[in-house]
Amino acid sequence: MAGGRRRRARGRRPGAGAGPAVGADGAGRRRLAYQAFPSGDLIVRDQGWLEEALPEWDIEWTRFDSGATINTAFVAESVDLAAIGSSPVARGLSAPLNIPYQVAWVLDVAGENEALVAREGAGIESMADLEGRTVGVPFASTAHYSLLAALDQAGVEAAAVEIVDLEPQDIVAAWTRGDLDASYVWLPTLDELRATGQVLATSEEIAAAGKPTLDLGVASTELVEEHPEVIAAWRDVQARALNLIHDDPDAAAEAVGRQLGIDADVAAAQLEQGVFLRPDDQSNPQWLGTPDRIGEVAANLHDAAEFLAAQNQIEGAPDLTVFQDAVHAEGLSDVDGS
């Protein structure tokens, strides 16, 4: 590894063998789910900061392509920490999943890094033109939520659109074959579609109209309760990554580029399309808040669940208190990433 960093992280296929979080040698094991979108989480993985902060733990990173598969992994008890969108978290905290996990961090706020794109030559100039067309999106993701919200805001019935469930890598293949008229997806896949398509709506625009989405860091309730030192260390390195994005964007882009297999200048452009908080913003009332005053993220998740229920995507939305109880704000104000 570059710089002689100690890297004990291992890759696994999603959902491979749950089992106890104990390594073959009896040492503790922490299983992290990450996604291939530009974020501080990729910087943490690239730099090996969590491995350095928790040398007594065997850190295992597994790539997932959507929040839906991460939720499945949590149900199977095969992950402990994850980078996941707010919409799948709203689903995960609702019936029938009722996943025992807690929101411990805001990775980013969706901006222009997620968007709905119509394929060139498809004859789609507006949201109304999507009626009767085929749109690809990863189901139960923030993009799926934003697609439904965009259709709703435009007065287009979702039932009038053929919405197909595809993971990002499958969207590119279907797009190339001409099987899709449009797609709602995130970076870096989004960049590939924009090269031969027209943006109809971005998550930033949909958020401004009342339906924001975020990428969150969640941890199993068991981990939060039994190993607060792991949560503290994980938050600290996530804060360090946010600081790097703000204070040394070139270094941040190089790290993200390595993880995504793209040039640093492309990674830099992609990072600029997201909204990244400063570490001390996390405990603000607008975001996660404090133990005495849980922040607006809980209300955001509740609103998302109510919308998903209205769209018949989940059975029903739990009470707001369910989402407030699922925000882990303890110790958050002490994190600065220094």
Automatic annotation (TrEMBL):
GO BP annotation list: alkanesulfonate transmembrane transport
InterPro entries: SsuA/THI5
Record keywords, A-Z: Signal
SUPFAM superfamilies linked to this entry: Periplasmic binding protein-like II
Protein name (record): Glycine/betaine ABC transporter substrate-binding protein
Subcellular location: Periplasm
Gene Ontology terms: cellular component: periplasmic space
Similarity field: Belongs to the bacterial solute-binding protein SsuA/TauA family.
Parts of the chain that traverse the membrane: none
Region described as Disordered: 1-24
Organism: Streptomyces hainanensis
Domain SsuA/THI5-like per the UniProt entry, residue ranges: 112-252
Biased composition (Basic residues): 1-13
